[in-house]
Amino acid sequence: MKKLSARRRHPLAALVVLLFALAATGGLYTAFAPAGEAKAEKQESSKSLAIEEGKKLYATGCSSCHGTGGQGTSDGPSLVGVGAAAVDFQVGTGRMPAQQPGAQVPKKKNIYSQDEINQLAAYVASLGSGPSQPNKKAYDPAGADVANGGELFRTNCSQCHNFTGKGGALTHGKFAPDLDGVDPKHIYEAMQTGPQNMPSFTDGALPEKDKRDIVAYVKQVNSDKSESPGGFSLGGFGPVSEGLFAWIFGLGAMVAVATWVAARTAKAKKS
């Protein structure tokens, strides 16, 4: 009994009991903690890691123009509040980082992987609230109303992008880009964020369904270049090119026919 009592009074006994208690508590918490809470903690940890990695990428590739904290400089606008969707569009289409300043930054091959783009987007989103990256359901053209999308596109977009999204020139060296071959997600994000010379269309002005219909229309009219319901498409640039064609070739052909008929008539009278 004396030996047993001596062991119980060992100086490390209290520490051993405490360690066992902590281990048991942790095990019970892991086993019985709400799944949603555990998932939320995991997501928060993953988000924090993405922001840290994105901050490193930003410092290397973006801070020289947009400032060390995204506040903007004379070479680049502020990124506070632009949101993750703007980053995904600009970096995903290769427009950012820009090669050189100009009236407009053109699309080019991007230099970041999608994981790196997501990390950059997470960091910029942490600077201020803005449009988030859309899920696939929002921009998937499958099952969308193409007719409604065409009407909305002609009303809101054709003034710059032309009737089938072929693009066109704007003022002072700017231009509306050709939408053929553009990823549906990037078309949706452009409507969300209004990059460069384009206005932004919030969900209040243009609901998610309408944006999706517009995406479906753009993909539909560019899906088969060999098929044009109206005949020769003349590049799909709209009434200006079609009217010019009619005046030059149509009217020219009529003048030529009239001249030929007059010449034949005069020759017949002489004979």
TrEMBL record:
Catalytic activity: a quinol + 2 Fe(III)-[cytochrome c](out) = a quinone + 2 Fe(II)-[cytochrome c](out) + 2 H(+)(out)
Binding-site positions, heme c 2: C157, C160, H161
InterPro entries, A to Z: bc1_cytC-su, Cyt_c-like_dom, Cyt_c-like_dom_sf, Cytochrome_c_Oxidase_Subunit
Modification after translation: Binds 2 heme c groups covalently per subunit.
Membrane topology, from the record: Multi-pass membrane protein
An annotated Gene Ontology molecular function: quinol-cytochrome-c reductase activity
This enzyme's EC code(s): 7.1.1.8
NAD listed as a keyword: no
Residues annotated as domain Cytochrome c: 49-128, 144-222
Signal sequence extent: 1-23
Short name of any one Pfam family annotated for the protein: Cytochrome_CBB3
Quaternary assembly: The cytochrome bc1 complex is composed of a cytochrome b (QcrB), the Rieske iron-sulfur protein (QcrA) and a diheme cytochrome c (QcrC) subunit.
Binding residues annotated for heme c 1, in chain numbering: C62, C65, H66
Protein's recorded name: Cytochrome bc1 complex cytochrome c subunit
Transmembrane intervals: 244-263
Assigned keywords, A-Z: Cell membrane, Electron transport, Heme, Iron, Lyase, Membrane, Metal-binding, Repeat, Respiratory chain, Signal, Translocase, Transmembrane, Transmembrane helix, Transport
GO cellular component: plasma membrane
Organism: Streptomyces diacarni
Places the protein is found: Cell membrane
